[in-house]
């Protein structure tokens, strides 16, 4: 980030606006919505500013800027059409350590004003750092259309009862859980509908119940993060990621997805790279239980789908044994993501009437699979974790009846910008020079459907 976003307490802002034309008026329209102390200096004043001065308590000096105007000021907007004056005020303010914004001149701005979605007391501020104003305007329009005006009622209600909840619930975690349930349930719905009496009655009941609960119960959410692209997360996965106290994740979870986790959540990396497990599986299981028993909401974040080569079944067996509550959120499995983004349909009426998912994981330099069952005509095979064992996979499939000319695809980093696809046949893929650069995570797709990539590829 080139700009650090902060919100200033406007009660302590002493703002100087130099220039009272239409440009200065836009800044004044914004800052007069706050309790800031505002001084305007300008020899000429447009009607818009005259109206703002009559409506608000502003100090106006109808003259040119003087150095003494900066005395006691901590925020400056410069909106004149004189470049020399703009530069002078910028330099003087900077020397005094005063934040200064020369409107429409980013190099002379020590701060910039964001694009704002106002649902006071809830304020959403966005910025592109001055490099993409049209994009920013587009995003603001999107947010304005999807965030209802009634959000302001939720904010006001929360502000009104904040101290009462803080007094009743001494635990920070308990308060957060309580407010999440209030705002996302019947009480929040009643507030939005303007049913204040109903909302208050239900609120008091909920707070009384929460006060007498013995201990906040922890829970584990086994969440499939999909193949990598954050856009492929389910809504439910995102909601639970935003509620988490602790997130336990492994190598297959992309950084972009981790960015969507609640900011204050503790993130614990447990590895799971080939032959390099930061934590063994039994310790991961124990870790989930330990964190849940502390009263935490734990997200076990897994690439793909938890129940497809994700050891999700083993993990929830441990939770059941320990008496820990859990939920399972399915994700788009890597095979589906890789096939779709590589332009390879896993089934097709003319090429494959069935698809089989198999693990190509090496154990003792061999892959223990039912090769005869896999090597069937008109069937697609998708191997997970099979890159190291690729020579064995090709050899065994040919040995058990598939033609050496059978198409095969290696899909590396499926659905991400760096996705890489290498196409070949069972007989030549291991000697293809492009194969040497392929790294995990890589899916292997075998079957006639691979030949469709030439016409169906749309992504990379």
UniProtKB/TrEMBL annotation:
Domain Tetrapyrrole methylase, residue spans: 220-429
A Pfam match: NAD_binding_7
Can you cite a GO biological process for this protein?
A: siroheme biosynthetic process
The entry lists its GO molecular-function terms as: NAD binding; precorrin-2 dehydrogenase activity; sirohydrochlorin ferrochelatase activity; uroporphyrin-III C-methyltransferase activity
In what pathway does it function?
Cofactor biosynthesis; adenosylcobalamin biosynthesis; precorrin-2 from uroporphyrinogen III: step 1/1; Porphyrin-containing compound metabolism; siroheme biosynthesis; siroheme from sirohydrochlorin: step 1/1; Porphyrin-containing compound metabolism; siroheme biosynthesis; precorrin-2 from uroporphyrinogen III: step 1/1; Cofactor biosynthesis; adenosylcobalamin biosynthesis; sirohydrochlorin from precorrin-2: step 1/1
Q: Which residues carry this modification: Phosphoserine?
A: 128
Q: In what residue span(s) does the Sirohaem synthase dimerisation domain sit?
A: 152-207
Q: Keyword set for this entry?
A: Cobalamin biosynthesis, Lyase, Methyltransferase, Multifunctional enzyme, NAD, Oxidoreductase, Phosphoprotein, Porphyrin biosynthesis, S-adenosyl-L-methionine, Transferase
- Show the segment(s) annotated as Uroporphyrinogen-III C-methyltransferase: 218-460
Ranges for region Precorrin-2 dehydrogenase / sirohydrochlorin ferrochelatase: 1-203
Active site feature: 250 (proton acceptor), 272 (proton donor)
Transmembrane domains' residue ranges: none
The entry marks the following residues as binding NAD(+), namely 22-23, 43-44
Q: Please list the reactions this protein catalyses.
A: precorrin-2 + NAD(+) = sirohydrochlorin + NADH + 2 H(+); uroporphyrinogen III + 2 S-adenosyl-L-methionine = precorrin-2 + 2 S-adenosyl-L-homocysteine + H(+); siroheme + 2 H(+) = sirohydrochlorin + Fe(2+)
Organism's domain of life?
Answer: Bacteria
**Residues holding S-adenosyl-L-methionine:** 227, 303-305, 308, 333-334, 385, 414
EC code(s) of this entry: 2.1.1.107, 1.3.1.76, 4.99.1.4
Extract the coiled-coil ranges from the record: none
Q: Which InterPro entries match?
A: 4pyrrol_Mease, 4pyrrol_Methylase_sf, 4pyrrole_Mease_sub1, 4pyrrole_Mease_sub2, CobA/CysG_C, NAD(P)-bd_dom_sf, Siro_Cobalamin_biosynth, Sirohaem_synt_dimer_dom_sf
What does this gene product do? Then it catalyzes the NAD-dependent ring dehydrogenation of precorrin-2 to yield sirohydrochlorin. Finally, it catalyzes the ferrochelation of sirohydrochlorin to yield siroheme.
Q: What family does the Swiss-Prot or TrEMBL record give for this protein?
A: In the N-terminal section; belongs to the precorrin-2 dehydrogenase / sirohydrochlorin ferrochelatase family.
What's this protein's name?
A: Siroheme synthase
Q: Which organism is it from?
A: Alteromonas sediminis
